[in-house]
Amino acid sequence: MDSAHAAKPLFSNGFDLVNLAVSSDILSNSWAAISELQSQIDQSPPSSETVKIREFKHPGYKIIAFVTPTAATSYLQEEGDLVPSSSSEAAVFKFLCSKDNPPFSINKAAISLFNSLQDRLSPLKTQVATSSKSIPHIITGDCLGGSIASLFTLCLLRTLDSATKNRPLCITFGSPLIGDGGFQQAISRYPTLSSCFLHVAHMDDCIPRLFLLSTTEQSLYEPFGTFLLCSESGGACFEAPESIIELLTRMSLERNGSTADSQIFNYKSVIECLEGRLTCKNQPAFSVPDADSFKAGITAQVAAIGLVQIQPQNMDIDALWKKIVMPEQDILKRKNPTIDPAKALNKMKVYLAYFEWYKNKCEDDNRGPGYYDSFKTKMARRDHEVVKFKTELEIYWQSVVEEAEKRPQFEGAPMRIRWLFAGTNYRRMVEPLHVAEYYKWGKRSYISQGRSKHFKLLEQWLDEHQKQPKNSVPNDSKMKKIMFSVTEDSCFWAHVEEARISCRLLNSGGSNSAEIENLVKFEKYVMGLLKNYAVSPDIFLESSSYMQWWREYEDTLGKQMMGASHNSELARFMKDGDYHLYKSGTRVFA
Fold it and tell me: Ramachandran region of residue 533, left (φ > 0), alpha (ψ -120 to 50) or beta?
């Protein structure tokens, strides 16, 4: 849904997100893990181990912490170059690229260090992906360690099944921005991805604004995920990249752009302060003179992190509105569309139920043509009425597939299983009508020349899903359901039409090796579907295109155009009348 048509949000939840993070103890436990690893580094002699990685167990979840030596901070300050996604260094993140995602770049220091750790990170990724099925994980780190934690989380998210409930949460403290606008866009296109990142940044910590210190030109770096910005006054969460950049820049100006203190900032006292405010319910109360509740809320959050005094004479209202309030409002509008996708899907299921009625109605007369041929000739009123439902379904599923294609391409299907199965039902029921319209005008080669892209992608994604071991073999009940519903291959009727064309060409022009080869392939194709009970019995209705093909094919066989000895398995199946058993629902094949 276009954000322009979404409802205007009334309130900001920036304070609520902070309270949730603080009350759950995940901030304090994450920082405690980082502090423990940092103390080990400080007490140990210099070694070749550039990053310490350790797992910490807590009731209900595990923490994986990444910590780099303090000296790594100076290296980070010296290395602000970006590495393009097309380079070999960033190859592991090419899955973030899709048709509509522009090329992106990642910080050279972060990606170089990340690549050097692959021998340690690969088995860790496998371990966490397996244990995530039973327990949630928090991936954390500070400064450059936080950058590695973010990159590791991205790779981990790629390996997880789309139905995984325990998605990891990455919490960084005082980490620099690690990618450009293209990197931010690629992650933000997939809400399930961007919601897994919480970046904590204090007003006095220079590292988070390291690449945003220049006020004369716009930085190439852009933030992604949620930022918890804080100071001695309190904290608030922001999600829009534009507002985060503006606030980080204001932090720099508030501290006169100082970078003198390059030591790793200690967030322990900050977290304790936030916990104290929550425990004592000592939240700062701001009186904001504005009738717009959302604008008043954002203004109060900006004041909570100590950047402005809530007094009309001290506020640049226009600048605050354009650079902070509007971006935050826009991002919430995109996250909360007026039309619930789940409700829209349910509406499409109602339309599909009408197709079920239409299909059954066309099959009531045992000598009828079936819904494919009925729609092709459009002799009845119902054939015209079904067009509007076909159009609504096509518009909906084209938009769903187009949106899914824009997202980063993870392993498995790009859309949730619920949508994938609903899309499969739609494709199998409705695509035959597209085939009927195509061949009605004497065209050929629907599959290669006339098939819509969204049908191709829905089929491709289902195939990829079924190739996964746990989804590869359908059970007997599923086979029976398919048998009495619709044909599994939504292009079945296109194959029938091509076979009829081949028969007509043979009967009118004599023998042709290409047409004979097409008919032999079609026989094997149909027989394969029959043995798998993957074709609906309606194909055997007396007036169906399939039965018309068979009669034309019998004429071809009678003229011995296929060879005097031609006695295929399908020909025997049809001549012996076994299709009557299949049509009645009797299991013909063992």
Answer: left
- Residue 289's CB is within 10 A of a number of other CB atoms, namely 10
How large is the greatest C-alpha to C-alpha distance in the chain, in angstroms? 99
Q: If you ran DSSP here, which 8-state letter would residue 385 be given? A: H
Q: Please enumerate, as own/partner, the contacts of 316-322 that have beta carbons within 8 Å and a separation of 24 or more.
A: 321/295
Alpha-carbon span 18 to 270, nearest angstrom: 12
Q: Which region among 234-248, 328-342, 560-574 has the lowest average model confidence (pLDDT)? A: 328-342
* All structural domains of the chain with their residue ranges: 14-281, 339-473, 479-590
Q: Which CATH architecture has domain 14-281?
A: 3-Layer(aba) Sandwich (3.40)
- The burial class, CB within 10 Å (0-12 / 13-18 / 19+), for 384 is exposed
Show the CA angle centred on residue 430, arms to residues 429 and 431, nearest 5°: 105
The residue ranges of DSSP E strands in 143-212, in sequence order, are 169-173, 197-202
Instruction: Give CA–CA dist 271/28, Å, rounded.
Output: 6
Whole-number Å distance between alpha carbons of 65 and 69: 13
Q: How confident is the model over 296-351, as pLDDT tens digits?
A: 777 778 877 877 654 444 455 566 666 777 777 777 666 655 455 677 888 898 99
Instruction: Check: CB of residue 133 under 8 Å from CB of residue 59.
Output: no
Alpha helices (H) along 44-78: 72-78
pTM: 0.68
Beta bridge partners of 180: 221
**Euclidean distance between CA atoms 483 and 485, whole angstroms:** 6
**132-181 pLDDT, tens digit each:** 888 999 999 999 999 999 999 999 988 886 556 788 999 999 999 999 99
Give the H or E element holding residue 273: helix 268-279
